[in-house]
Design a protein that fits this description.
By secondary structure, the protein is α/β, with parallel strands linked by helices. Helices cover 28% and strands 22% of the residues. The chain has 8 helices and 9 strands. The chain has a 5-stranded mixed barrel. Helix 1 (9-20) packs across helix 3 (100-108) and helix 5 (170-182) packs across helix 8. The chain binds hypoxanthine (HPA).
Length: 297
C-alpha cells in the first residue's frame, strides 16, 4: 500500500461525490466509533450502508473490531453519518489518509463531530469501564512532526494556522455533563493523549504521559479532531477507559486488544444513552461560535 502523504483536494471531492451518488440527504452530525464501540451503530434508524472499499481514496482498516462501514441514517431525529471503524496511522496510512474521512464528512454537510475511542486510563483515580469526556488533547503525533495539517494548506477547508484553544467544544462538553447527570451516568473529564501505536506504552512512558497532564491515552482521535476543527466543525469527544495504564514494570497484569474490545462492548449502552441525549438537545451550529471560521461551497 502506497501512503499518499499529502492528499490532493480532488481525492476528497471524488470520495464525497461517490457517497452522494448513493445516499439521499445530507448528514449534519458525524460519529466516529472506536474499538469495541461499533455496536452503537445498531441505534441508527433507516440505515443506509456504504462499505469503505466502495469509496475512492478511503482508507480501510485491517484491525479486528473495526468493521469499516459508513452508515447514514437518523438518530434522535438528527441526520447522522457514522464511521463504524476507523483506520489508524500505525496501519501504514499517512496522517492525510487517516483523516480523509473527516474532510469528506465536512463536504457532505457535517458540521459537528462526535468522536469516540478506546483508551488506557493514565489518571490513577480512573477505573476500567469509565467514560471520559475529552476536555483537551495532547497530540503527541502532531508534536513529533506528524501533524495531519502538514503539507500544502487546502484553503477551501480552513486556515493555514488554525487556532485550537477550544478544540473540544465547551458548550457540547457542558451538555454532555448535563445529559450524564440526568441519566445517572458517572463521567470523568480530562486530557486525551494521542500516540501513534501500535505498541502499548511502557511503564516509563505511562509515568511520563501522566506527568505531562494526560488522563487517557490512545492511538486515534487527536489528529481527527485537529482536521475537524480546522474545517470549523464543533467536536465532542469521549474516551472509553478500557484498561488502566500500567505504570510499574513489576506489575503482573497486562493490557490486551481482546480486553479492550470486551470492555468497549460493556461501555456501549451507557455511551449510547449519552450520545442520544446530546443529539436530542444539540444546539444549532453557529459558525460565529467556532474559531476557524469556515466558508464552504
Ligand atoms: N494505550 C493505547 N491505546 C489504547 C489503550 C492503551 O492502554 N487502551 C485502548 N487503546
Amino acid at each position: 500500500m502506497a501512503a499518499t502523504e499529502f492528499v490532493p483536494e480532488e481525492h476528497y471531492r471524488a470520495a464525497a461525490a461517490a457517497v452522494r451518488a448513493r445516499i439521499a440527504g445530507s448528514p449534519a452530525i458525524g460519529l466516529i466509533l472506536g474499538s469495541g464501540l461499533g455496536p452503537l451503530v445498531d441505534e441508527i434508524e433507516s440505515p443506509q450502508v456504504i462499505p469503505y472499499q466502495d469509496i475512492p481514496h478511503w482508507p480501510h482498516s485491517t484491525v479486528k473490531g473495526h468493521a469499516g462501514r459508513l452508515v447514514f441514517g437518523e438518530l434522535e431525529g438528527q441526520p447522522v453519518v457514522v464511521m463504524q471503524g476507523r483506520t489508524h496511522f500505525y496501519e501504514g496510512y499517512s496522517m492525510g489518509q487517516v483523516t480523509l474521512p473527516v474532510r469528506v464528512m465536512r463536504l457532505l454537510g457535517v458540521n459537528t463531530l462526535v468522536v469516540t475511542n478506546a483508551a488506557g486510563g493514565l489518571n490513577a483515580s480512573f477505573s476500567a469501564g469509565d467514560i471520559m469526556i475529552i476536555e483537551d488533547h495532547i497530540a503527541f503525533t502532531g508534536l513529533a512532526g506528524f501533524n495531519p495539517l502538514r503539507g500544502p494548506n487546502l484553503d477551501s477547508f480552513g486556515p493555514r494556522f488554525p487556532v485550537c484553544t477550544h478544540i473540544y467544544d465547551p458548550g457540547l462538553r457542558k451538555l454532555a455533563h448535563r445529559v450524564a447527570a440526568e441519566n445517572d451516568i458517572p463521567v470523568r473529564e480530562g486530557v486525551y493523549v494521542g500516540l501513534a501505536g501500535p505498541s502499548f506504552e511502557t511503564p516509563a512512558e505511562v509515568r511520563m504521559l501522566r506527568a505531562l497532564g494526560g488522563d487517557s491515552v490512545g492511538m486515534s482521535t487527536a489528529h481527527e479532531t485537529i482536521v475537524a476543527y480546522h474545517t470549523g466543525m464543533r467536536v465532542l469527544g469521549f474516551s472509553s477507559i478500557t484498561n488502566l495504564s500500567i505504570d510499574d514494570p513489576e506489575a503482573s497484569e497486562e493490557v490486551s486488544h481482546e480486553e479492550v474490545l470486551r470492555l468497549g462492548r460493556q461501555i456501549v449502552p451507557r455511551l449510547a444513552v449519552l450520545i442520544r441525549g446530546v443529539l436530542r438537545q444539540m444546539p444549532p451550529y453557529d459558525p460565529a461560535e467556532v474559531e476557524n471560521h469556515p466558508e464552504y461551497e
